Amino acid sequence: MQDNRTPPDRSPLGRQSVVALAVLTALLMLVGFLWLPMAQGDFTVRGLWDTICRAAGVPSQWAGNSAARTGHVATNVVLDRAMAHAAPAAAVGRGATLALNCTMCHGAQGMSASNAPNLAGQYPEVVIKQLQDYKTGKRGSPIMETLSRNLSERDIADLAAYYASLPKARTAPTTYDENLPALVRVGDPLRNVAPCISCHGGVDQKFGAPWLEGMPHAYLTSQLRAFREGTRRNDSEAQMRNMARAMTDQEIEEVSNFYARKNSAAEGR
């Protein structure tokens, strides 16, 4: 015999659970796609895709395509591990002679008394890359472009060997034992900003990333602002531009103060 009875209504608890889940999902979407992005000072609405990528913590346009987007090749230098090999004494001596042309800005022992970068103990591949970029015009500076224009590859390698042989005076590597600024220690994942110490020494050093401990404060702030504004563009795959673009003036000041602090402390002794 066929049962024509109307099935009972669903459980009120079940309906309430579905409604609660829908409300929770809507709230989480509002937080992830609106409230958290808008809490950042550099938030701009460029479309749904940018909003989704920002909420997920990934770039909307991958750095690998930066050259195609801008029509600009950041650098012609291909980093090779051989650049970091210990140089013979003859190369260091020849580099010391060539460095006499650099002392006015970078100091007699590679420690600047002006706002030029300290070069004492700098990784050799860093010096090689920057000199090559100045020589080819990938990094702009009227003085450095002029000085590097006539340097041969051997000259550049010898200069790098000399500066790498000098002790890193006034500096010591950063460790987690110190009271680090947030961007130095952990970065900001919500803005896709990596921690400084993951590349720039102390805890870890990415091949080709410069040693920053004890650098002049004015130099650090000027370079971070240049990366942020895109006036310095010789960073491979726009790595530093992507980091600095999200930084506020206050964060640039905090990071620069942190890395310059040991230089200032030593000068005050």
Automatic annotation (TrEMBL):
Keywords: Electron transport, Heme, Iron, Membrane, Metal-binding, Transmembrane, Transmembrane helix, Transport. Residues 90-167, 182-263 form the Cytochrome c domain. The chain crosses the membrane at residues 17-36. GO terms for molecular function: electron transfer activity; heme binding; metal ion binding. SUPFAM superfamilies: Cytochrome c (SSF46626). This is Cytochrome c4. It comes from Cupriavidus lacunae.
